[in-house]
């Protein structure tokens, strides 16, 4: 072929290719127009139905085309919102969420974010009726030419987000379909819902709904959470550059994340500002100033869960457990967990920060740095209501906090009281001699007096001892003549003698308690007294403590501090037992009350005069008995009992005023066995040959109560009847100096 031929054929070939490309583009535009016209025609035909019928279809899924099985309130509020746990004064304890979201109203959003999101996502938002045919045609033409252009309106995006959120809320995450994977039927279905939505709601309602549901980041859903996460400000205070940056994120939260891709984020922000200028939301000067503003983040990552509670980590867990195990919040535990993590609940509790702060300070101070990981705890109940006012321990859920002692276990509650994936309570500890007032209550319940003398010299109760019982045989014995047994022991050798029941309690003499037990008309009255004041095993409230076994009379079974505090609160309330309560109200995301606990009290669970007489004796513990060794004094009427287990590694003081009952614990909350003795130990710089309840748990109780006592009733206790103090035939025992009794 000649050069001339070649030179003339090349332009024609180029011309042919250009013509083919131009024809292709034109054909693409034409086909796109035909396709969009057909689609719009189909939509017009399919959507020319009464608005009410469409709304019903969208809600109920009554036709095959719109079968979605959506809950009726699908568009009423974002399904996943932050749950807040609050103290009694309204201060925040913790937040919980599966998606960090806080719903707000449109007037709580800066005009900058409203204008920015409309300008970049759907500038014809206020002109269309849910779908934008012009936008669909424009997108089709661009797509046909080889580009990419989205055509979803804000209303369609809102529908998509809400449908996906509802699937997630129902645990159907696998059914969520991304935009690029949707079928034509799915797209048409969502278009129909968008038009139906516009029929039911105003533009402002739709815009507010969209801004509350859309994701800006894995840590921030909705504009309020995004504002707080990226800038530590509320949505109403967003500046123009801040709002433009957030508006740019919704198109690609990962792609435009300013913490990972700052340059891409700024380019996208400036594109939003260009759109705002183009559509008249800002003027040139505002645009230029914003473009010239560097990205200035002030990150505020959300910290959710009880481990990040601002106060009372373990009380927070305890509260969640109350909801998690309550069928009124959902038929299954999964439903209840979903409600907690995504329901936007407001959980109002009984916690009093005025007490919680001093309690936490005190348990931390008791052991100091604590390399040996000795446990300390305090829990306070309000007598007459059962309200849990404070719950503290010296461990933390996360490393690097407090004493450096990390544990998921709650020292104060039953092992059954777990929340979420928490390991729950340790299952209680051995209360030792803090159980002795139960036998005293049984004694008084039979009309016997505190000043009656019993034979505390007796140490042997053999296999065939004639216990008086009407309910069950008494198990066990103390008898050194029997192999693998021993006679009953006191903590010190000089207390094996006759003494009053009162002295036996305030000096904490084991043989005196057993002499009282032997003097009962019915040993079963001890079990009845324990049941009346709510004592149960640390495994859970349905596990009754067993006082038919002699060893358990002296506190060898594990009981949780919360249970002990509440039992002594029954004494303080003159025999009125109240079940512990921690939640006053639970509101849903719309502010409707859906739950809560009320005081559940039983007046006369223990005879009032019996409770008054027990208190009268326990006051002597602090003035002339084992509690006299506690150097700190409250200066108001108070009563208490010390307790120490066999190995000196679980020690207690449980005490009360008229308005507060507190259990104080020091020791090994996990084991308590002979492998870790509370002897020859140094605690917070002080050496102890043997730890007794009055030595560490006692000062902890007193110092904390000094800070708390003035906030609640601290008046005089009611006087018991004289016949329960000094019966007609009582003989007086000799009073001696206080012992370090158990």
UniProtKB/TrEMBL annotation:
Q: Which keywords fit this entry according to its UniProt record?
A: Carboxypeptidase, Glycosyltransferase, Hydrolase, Membrane, Multifunctional enzyme, Protease, Transferase, Transmembrane, Transmembrane helix
Q: Which organism is it from?
A: Pseudarthrobacter enclensis
Which PANTHER family does the entry mention? BINDING PROTEIN TRANSPEPTIDASE, PUTATIVE-RELATED, PEPTIDOGLYCAN GLYCOSYLTRANSFERASE
- Pfam families in UniProt: Transgly, Transpeptidase
Query: Start and end of every Glycosyl transferase family domain?
Result: 90-276
The protein, known as: Membrane peptidoglycan carboxypeptidase
Q: Where are the transmembrane segments?
A: 27-49
**Reactions this protein catalyses:** Preferential cleavage: (Ac)2-L-Lys-D-Ala-|-D-Ala. Also transpeptidation of peptidyl-alanyl moieties that are N-acyl substituents of D-alanine; [GlcNAc-(1->4)-Mur2Ac(oyl-L-Ala-gamma-D-Glu-L-Lys-D-Ala-D-Ala)](n)-di-trans,octa-cis-undecaprenyl diphosphate + beta-D-GlcNAc-(1->4)-Mur2Ac(oyl-L-Ala-gamma-D-Glu-L-Lys-D-Ala-D-Ala)-di-trans,octa-cis-undecaprenyl diphosphate = [GlcNAc-(1->4)-Mur2Ac(oyl-L-Ala-gamma-D-Glu-L-Lys-D-Ala-D-Ala)](n+1)-di-trans,octa-cis-undecaprenyl diphosphate + di-trans,octa-cis-undecaprenyl diphosphate + H(+)
Stretches the record annotates as Disordered: 720-742
Task: Indicate yes or no for the key word Cytoplasm.
Answer: no
What is the organism lineage in this UniProt record? Bacteria, Bacillati, Actinomycetota, Actinomycetes, Micrococcales
Quick check: keyword Protease in the entry?
yes
Biased composition (Polar residues) is annotated at 723-742
What's an example of a GO molecular-function annotation for this chain?
Answer: carboxypeptidase activity
Every copy of the Penicillin-binding protein transpeptidase domain together lies at 377-658
């Amino acid at each position: 072929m000649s050069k001339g031929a070649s030179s003339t054929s090349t332009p024609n070939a180029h011309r042919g290719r250009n013509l083919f490309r131009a024809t292709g583009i034109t054909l693409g535009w034409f086909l796109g127009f035909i396709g969009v016209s057909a689609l719009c025609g189909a939509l017009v035909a399919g959507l020319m139905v009464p608005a009410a019928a469409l709304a019903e279809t969208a809600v109920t899924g009554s036709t095959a085309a719109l079968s979605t099985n959506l809950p009726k309130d699908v568009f009423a509020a974002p399904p996943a919102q932050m749950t807040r746990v609050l103290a009694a004064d309204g201060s925040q304890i913790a937040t919980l969420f599966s998606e960090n979201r806080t719903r707000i109203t449109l007037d709580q959003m800066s005009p900058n974010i409203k204008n920015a999101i409309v300008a970049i996502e759907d500038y014809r938002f206020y002109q269309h009726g849910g779908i934008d045919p012009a936008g669909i045609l424009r997108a089709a033409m661009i797509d046909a030419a080889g580009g990419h252009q989205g055509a979803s309106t804000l209303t369609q995006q809102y529908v998509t987000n809400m449908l996906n959120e509802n699937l997630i809320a129902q645990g159907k995450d696998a059914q969520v379909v991304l935009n690029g994977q949707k079928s034509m039927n799915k797209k048409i279905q969502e278009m129909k819902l968008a038009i139906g939505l516009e029929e039911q709601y105003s533009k402002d309602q739709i815009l507010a709904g969209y801004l509350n549901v859309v994701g800006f980041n894995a840590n921030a859903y909705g504009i309020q959470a995004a504002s707080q996460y990226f800038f530590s400000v509320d949505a109403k205070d967003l500046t123009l550059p801040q709002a433009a940056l957030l508006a740019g994120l919704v198109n690609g939260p990962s792609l435009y994340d300013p913490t990972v891709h700052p340059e891409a984020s700024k380019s996208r922000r400036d594109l939003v500002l260009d759109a705002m200028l183009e559509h008249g939301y800002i003027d040139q000067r505002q645009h230029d100033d914003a473009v010239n503003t560097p990205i200035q983040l002030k990150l505020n990552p959300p910290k959710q869960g009880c481990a990040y509670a601002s106060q009372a980590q373990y009380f927070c867990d305890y509260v969640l457990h109350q909801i998690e195990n309550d069928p009124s919040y959902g038929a299954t535990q999964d439903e209840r967990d979903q409600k907690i993590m995504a329901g936007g609940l407001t959980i109002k509790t009984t916690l009093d920060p005025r007490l919680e702060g001093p309690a936490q300070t005190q348990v931390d101070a008791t052991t100091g740095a604590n390399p040996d990981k000795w446990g300390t705890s305090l829990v306070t109940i309000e007598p007459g209501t059962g309200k849990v006012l404070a719950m503290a321990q010296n461990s933390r859920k996360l490393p690097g906090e407090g004493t450096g002692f990390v544990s998921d276990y709650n020292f104060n509650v039953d092992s059954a009281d777990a929340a979420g994936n928490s390991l729950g309570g340790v299952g209680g500890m051995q209360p030792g001699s803090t159980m002795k007032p139960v036998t005293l209550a049984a004694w008084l319940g039979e009309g016997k007096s505190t000043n009656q003398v019993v034979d505390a010299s007796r140490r042997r109760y053999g296999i065939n001892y004639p216990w008086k019982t009407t309910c069950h045989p008494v198990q066990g014995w103390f008898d050194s003549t029997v192999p693998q047994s021993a006679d009953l022991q006191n903590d010190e050798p000089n207390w094996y003698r006759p003494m009053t029941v009162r002295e036996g309690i305030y000096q904490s003499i084991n043989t005196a308690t057993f002499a009282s037990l032997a003097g009962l008309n019915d040993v079963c009255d001890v079990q009845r007294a324990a049941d009346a004041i709510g004592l149960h095993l640390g495994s859970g409230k349905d596990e009754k403590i067993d006082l038919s076994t002699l060893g358990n009379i002296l506190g060898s079974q594990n009981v949780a501090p919360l249970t002990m505090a509440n039992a002594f609160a029954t004494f303080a309330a003159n025999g009125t037992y109240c079940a512990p309560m921690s939640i006053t109200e639970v509101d849903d995301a719309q502010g409707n009350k859906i739950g809560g606990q009320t005081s559940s009290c039983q007046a006369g669970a223990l005879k009032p005069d019996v409770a008054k007489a027990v208190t009268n004796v326990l006051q002597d513990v602090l003035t002339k008995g084992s509690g006299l060794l506690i150097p700190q004094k409250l200066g108001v009427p108070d009563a208490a009992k010390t307790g120490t287990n066999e190995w000196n590694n679980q020690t207690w003081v449980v005490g009360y005023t008229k308005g507060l009952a507190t259990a104080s614990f020091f020791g090994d909350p996990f084991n308590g066995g002979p492998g870790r003795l509370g002897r020859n130990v140094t605690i917070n710089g002080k050496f102890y040959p043997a730890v007794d309840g009055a030595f560490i748990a006692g000062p902890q109780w007193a110092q904390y109560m000094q800070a708390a006592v003035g906030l609640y009733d601290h008046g005089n206790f009611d006087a018991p009847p004289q016949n329960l103090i000094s019966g007609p035939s009582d003989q007086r025992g000799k009073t001696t100096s206080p012992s370090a009794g158990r």
